[in-house]
From TrEMBL:
Residues the entry annotates as binding ATP: G327, L328, S329, G330, A331, G332, K333, S334
Top-level taxonomic group: Bacteria
Enzyme class per UniProt: transferase
Catalytic activity line of the entry: adenosine 5'-phosphosulfate + ATP = 3'-phosphoadenylyl sulfate + ADP + H(+)
GO MF terms, alphabetically ordered: kinase activity; nucleotidyltransferase activity
UniProt name for this protein: Adenylyl-sulfate kinase
Pathway this chain belongs to: Sulfur metabolism; hydrogen sulfide biosynthesis; sulfite from sulfate: step 2/3
UniProt entry keywords in alphabetical sequence: ATP-binding, Kinase, Nucleotide-binding, Nucleotidyltransferase, Phosphoprotein, Transferase
APS kinase domain location: 319-471
Gene source species: Saccharopolyspora taberi
Name of the encoding gene: cysC
Xref: Pfam families: APS_kinase, PUA_2
InterPro entries: APS, APS_kinase_dom, ATP-Sase_PUA-like_dom, P-loop_NTPase, PUA-like_sf, Sulf_AdTrans/APS_kinase
Stored PANTHER family: SULFATE ADENYLYLTRANSFERASE
Amino acid sequence: MVVWSIVERREVCVRTNAAESDCPVWVPEPAELSDVELLLDGAFPALDGFLGAEDAESVRTAGRLADGSPWPVPITLRVPDEIAAHPRVELRDQEGAPLAVVENIAPWRDERYAHLAGPVRAVTAERSRLLRMLRPPADVVRAGLPPGPVLGVVPDEPLDRARLAQIRHAAGELGATVLLLPRLTGPRPETLVRATFAAQAELPEGTAVVPVPLTSHGDGKQDDLLAAHVAAAYGATHLLGDRSMEHVPVTVVEPPEVARGAGDRWLPAALVPAGERRPGLSDDELQQLLDSGTPLPEWFATAPIAEEWARLRPPLHERGFTVLFTGLSGAGKSTLASALRDELARLDRRQVTLLDGDVVRRSLCAGLGFSPEDRSRNVRRIGWVAAEITRHGGAAICAPIAPYAADRDDVRRRVREVGEFALVHVATPLDECERRDRKGLYARAREGSLPEFTGVSAPYEEPEDADLVLDTSRMSVSEAVAEVVALLGARGWVRSWTSG
């Protein structure tokens, strides 16, 4: 059997020992896997599978399926043409576990990709991952709710005391059961789930928590509309949200105004005289406290929820980060990267990993050539590893040539989802790079015996968005490294042993 997966927006095929030979296996992107799980759980009640071309276009242009039913987001699955040619495709998660089958496929194409359209059914009743086991199918959740109104809340961050007061007040006004549906999105979804379970003690008895893998499909309005449909599928009759939303299967309730009063209690604003109201925390103030590692005030969040806030956004000096050096061969990237690693080992407590371009090509990226496609694969693989190092609080120092802006942007996006990122352009002039060339690579490229050589026979797209530009023909290694460390220090990512 052939297993296919989109990696770095390119198709990659790997062989397995599976017995079937007539049904290809496809590993969707993470956002598409979330859609698969919601389809299997009955959380997209208007759909039985992935949309065809007519329905997808109707949703994009009119916010409705072709039959007129309101639906906010096209739920589609892109695949290579080779996969779309089959009438039945097995879907697996990123660990290779069978998840579902798409059957009776009617493939279609947009400008760039083939798509599968057809019903989706589960291939196993097991719910192997912990967060999935915490989410029963939608019909089971609905059956377990008591009669009467159900107030749905879809948090994407831990619930502070003000938000908890809003939920309590709205639920009390409606006489409703509370249904919390935390989004399983972002770099640490388990942290939001823990924070939401911690909030149960602060909410009315019978409050239910059902984590849902709602990912972003477009702008914020579309995502909110989809969340309303999902909340209704799990049994919500009302939703705490923006009342301007239209064509949703729930009654939308604006969050009631609350105020912090005497004793630091959050109450309906009408119960707190204007002269007794105390200020809360703005978003900027909250981020400043988290970035500095300052404990959140008790009036803002309960202790268990404050702990999860700190896990969700660690202080800057403990947060993982990546420094990506980019520049021509011979510019001095590897030398600077090695020197920076040594300096960080002296200054900082984080584990530091060096991903040098040449070393990576002999290991992680062995077998790749120097075509534009392979160059992109090389950089994006480095970016994936760097993001994982960053996610776990380490420091990744990367030194590939990284000639294409799109690949550098991809690395930046991946890393910033989980931590901090800095791009350093080692802008040593080409003639100096050639003068330093001990291997004779530039000479061979000039002679035509070394094709696809960056700066001679292959392009280098100079970054216009670098956080720091260094010319090693005009400064020593120690001076250049000092500038990088100064940048990291100015951003609060690195503190010396004495100041930490």
